[in-house]
Design a protein that fits this description.
The complex is a heterodimer. Chain A is built from 9 helices and 13 strands. Chain A is of the alpha/beta class. In chain A, helix 4 packs parallel to helix 5. In chain B, the strands form 2 sheets. In chain B, strands 2-1-4-6 form a 4-stranded mixed sheet. Chain B has a 4-stranded mixed sheet with strand order 3-8-7-5, with no helix packed on it. The chains are: A alpha/beta, B alpha/beta.
Chain lengths: ~325, ~120
């Protein structure tokens, strides 16, 4: 039943509470997005939210749908070097993620990697990831995860991936009218606390967005979620509210994170939050199980809970279409 | 005194001594074993076990990472800090001064512990 609804391209049934009379229902949007992990595509089409399954036969149906004026992909948590039972071959699954990106009908212009590139910050681990990602032939923008800055305060990470970045590795850039902000929230962590952006970065960010028109779509990407997913497991950022307060004036803000190795979405006012799959190993749902470590699943299920994210932006539309697809 | 009597009386003297030796040695050995295990902190499932440990001055505490993910042992006041410990890696620190040493994992700062040195 649920699957049938999901496959129905006319999924406007999801719109139940259209408070703004704009054809977009925040709760319906969430409901739709909740299917993301199983491979649904949620897209605003002519002001109406629709949901489609990411089945391989979607190609023909998609042709009638004008795709975004900007398309990019997100990968996260490749943990190169991890070799425990939860996934003894993270090279193969990262390779599958690359194949998945290369097979996307709407080719992304570039890729965001939201951190934990490596497992132990070793040069050989970074080398392996670089080698595998080279096959995408795309520009890749990185932010560090805590596993990428283990023993040198991120010096090697910045040397490799952050040559033009500020401070500990933060930066911004513009693509097709969309403003992207890469943040670092995995360093100088305080005992008992969560992820931290810190005063210098917050100051820079406030200044960075000050001159932008409120109609500019904003995409923020960082490793640890910038919303409180599950603080008991450290899944949140202590000073994220301050950062988000600088973005209230904008009509469309999309926040992309990794770290928790599972897809999750939340819409709060003008901000859509989204976390990506890992390409390496899954972690349990918040509070499920004893802790936030790698979750072992039967080998045949592993690829169904690893994956990539694909984001499309259509100019003049309210929100970016965020699509997760598993490696299965 | 016959030779036999000498032997018996020597035996009578030695037996309690031997018993005493066993009694003395045994608790000593047991005690040192207790001490060794008490000075180890297991880092397991994102927690320090025990999360509070009381030790005498000049004790060496060893942390061992039993998790599938790396952790660090970092003193909150910057007194000591390990490199990232992979699975089964160990880190030791000798506490030469009395005091309370709060520490945490600088990668997963929700993990906190304390060593009390008396």
């Amino acid at each position: 039943m649920a699957k049938k609804t999901l496959l129905d391209p006319n999924a406007s049934a999801f719109i139940e509470h259209d408070h703004n009379n704009d054809g977009i229902d925040r709760r319906g949007f969430l409901k739709c997005m909740a299917w993301a992990g199983t491979g649904a595509l949620c897209v605003i089409e002519g002001g109406v939210l629709t949901s489609r399954a990411l089945a391989s036969d979607m190609g023909s149906k998609m042709k009638s749908h004008k795709m975004g004026e900007l398309s990019f992909a997100q990968i996260s948590d490749s943990h190169m070097g991890f070799n425990k039972p939860a996934n003894p071959d993270v090279i193969a699954t990262l390779q599958s993620a690359v194949d998945k990106i290369k097979a996307l009908r709407e080719q992304p212009e570039f890729i965001l990697h939201t951190g934990d590139i490596s497992h132990l910050s070793k040069p050989s681990e970074f080398d392996n990831v670089d080698q595998i990602l080279k096959a995408t032939n795309k520009e890749i923008f990185f932010v560090p995860g805590e596993h990428d800055v283990l023993n040198d305060e991120g010096a090697m990470f910045r040397e490799r991936y952050g040559k033009n970045s500020k401070g500990q590795g933060w930066y911004s850039f513009d693509k097709n009218g969309v403003h992207f902000i890469g943040l670092v929230n995995v360093m100088n962590l305080k005992a008992g606390g969560l992820g931290t952006l810190g005063g210098a970065q917050l100051e820079w960010m406030e200044d960075d967005v000050k001159h932008l028109k409120s109609s500019t779509p904003i995409v923020v990407f960082a490793h640890i979620p910038l919303w409180s997913v599950y603080p008991q497991w450290g899944w949140g950022t202590d000073d994220s509210a301050q950062a988000l307060s600088y973005l209230r004036k904008f009509g469309s803000v999309t926040v992309l994170n990794g770290h928790i190795h599972q897809t999750m979405q939340k819409v709060e006012g003008n901000i859509t939050f989204h976390t990506a799959f890992s390409t390496a190993f899954p972690q349990p749902a918040p509070g499920q199980g004893e802790g936030p470590g790698p979750m072992k699943v039967p080998a045949e299920q592993l690829r169904s809970i690893l994956g990539i994210t694909d984001v499309n932006y259509v100019q003049g539309r309210h929100a970016l279409a965020v699509v997760d697809s598993s490696l299965a | 005194m016959t030779k036999r009597n000498v032997f018996l009386s020597s035996l009578a003297l030695m037996l309690p001594l031997a018993l005493a030796t066993v009694l003395v040695l045994h608790p000593t050995r047991a005690k040192s074993e207790d001490k060794a295990s008490a000075l180890e902190v297991r880092v397991d499932n994102f927690t320090f076990g025990p999360d509070m440990l009381t030790v005498p001055v000049n004790s060496t505490v060893t942390w061992v990472n039993k998790d599938d993910l790396p952790h660090t042992i970092a003193s909150t006041d910057g007194v000591f800090k390990s490199k990232a410990l992979d699975t089964e890696d160990k880190y030791s620190y000798t506490f030469a001064k009395a005091g309370t040493y709060a520490y945490f994992c600088s990668i997963h700062p929700k993990m906190v512990g304390k060593i009390v040195v008396q």
